[in-house]
C-alpha cells in the first residue's frame, strides 16, 4: 500500500512527522481529503482539525490555526501559524475565548478591531469543534 510522508510544523516546532494513508485538511475553500498520488496543490488553510490516518488505521487529530498546505503525490507538508495535538486543547478556555469574541462583536460601542474579533471567534469555534470531534472519536471506540 502506498503511503504519504506527512509533516506538520508550526512557527514554534514540528508537531507531527510520519506516514499516512489518508490526510484530511481544512482548506480555505473546504475540506481536503488527500490520498497517495494526489495532484500537486498549494493552498491556504483555515483554523480547524487535521486528521491523519496511519497505515495501520490509527488516527491522529491536530488543531491548526491557519497557514498553508503543500500537497505532492507522495507528501503533505502543513505549515501552520499555530498547531497542537487536539487532545491538549482546553475546552473551558476555548469556550471563554468564544464568548469574549462574540461579546466584542455584539458591542457596537467603543473602538474595537472587528477583523481581529472575527478571527478570534473563528479560532475559538474551530478549537471547540476539534475538541468535540476528538471526543466523538474516542467515544466511538
TrEMBL record:
Classify the source by domain of life: Bacteria
In this chain the ATP synthase F1 complex delta/epsilon subunit N-terminal domain maps to 4-83
Xref: InterPro entries: ATP_F1_dsu/esu_C_sf, ATP_synth_F1_dsu/esu, ATP_synth_F1_dsu/esu_N, ATP_synth_F1_esu_C, ATPsynth_dsu/esu_N
* UniProt domain ATP synthase epsilon subunit C-terminal: residue ranges: 88-131
* UniProt keyword Transport, yes or no: yes
Q: Where in the cell is it found?
A: Cell membrane
List UniProt keywords, sorted A-Z.
ATP synthesis, Cell membrane, CF(1), Hydrogen ion transport, Ion transport, Membrane, Transport
Name a single GO cellular component.
Answer: proton-transporting ATP synthase complex
Task: Specify the protein's topology with respect to the membrane.
Answer: Peripheral membrane protein
A molecular function GO annotation: ATP binding
Q: Which SUPFAM superfamilies match?
A: Epsilon subunit of F1F0-ATP synthase C-terminal domain (SSF46604), Epsilon subunit of F1F0-ATP synthase N-terminal domain (SSF51344)
A Pfam family reported for this protein in Swiss-Prot or TrEMBL? ATP-synt_DE
Is Cell membrane one of the keywords UniProt gives this record? Answer: yes
Q: Which NCBIfam families match?
A: ATP_synt_epsi, PRK00571.1-4, PRK13442.1
Q: Assembly and interactions? A: F-type ATPases have 2 components, CF(1) - the catalytic core - and CF(0) - the membrane proton channel. CF(1) has five subunits: alpha(3), beta(3), gamma(1), delta(1), epsilon(1). CF(0) has three main subunits: a, b and c.
| Protein function | Produces ATP from ADP in the presence of a proton gradient across the membrane.
Similarity field: Belongs to the ATPase epsilon chain family.
Known PANTHER family for this protein? ATP SYNTHASE DELTA/EPSILON CHAIN, ATP SYNTHASE EPSILON CHAIN, CHLOROPLASTIC
Q: What is this protein called?
A: ATP synthase epsilon chain
Amino acid at each position: 500500500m502506498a503511503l504519504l510522508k506527512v509533516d506538520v510544523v508550526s512557527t514554534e516546532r514540528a508537531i507531527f512527522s510520519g506516514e499516512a494513508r489518508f490526510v484530511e485538511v481544512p482548506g480555505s475553500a473546504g475540506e481536503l481529503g488527500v490520498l497517495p498520488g494526489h495532484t500537486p496543490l498549494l493552498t491556504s488553510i483555515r483554523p480547524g482539525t487535521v486528521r491523519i490516518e496511519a497505515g495501520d488505521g490509527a488516527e491522529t487529530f491536530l488543531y491548526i490555526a491557519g497557514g498553508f498546505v503543500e500537497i505532492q503525490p507522495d507528501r503533505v507538508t502543513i505549515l501552520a501559524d499555530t498547531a497542537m495535538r487536539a487532545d491538549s486543547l482546553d475546552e473551558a478556555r476555548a469556550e471563554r475565548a468564544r464568548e469574549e469574541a462574540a461579546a466584542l462583536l455584539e458591542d457596537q460601542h467603543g473602538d474595537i478591531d472587528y477583523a481581529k474579533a472575527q478571527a478570534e471567534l473563528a479560532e475559538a469555534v474551530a478549537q471547540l469543534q476539534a475538541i468535540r470531534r476528538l471526543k466523538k472519536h474516542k467515544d466511538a471506540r
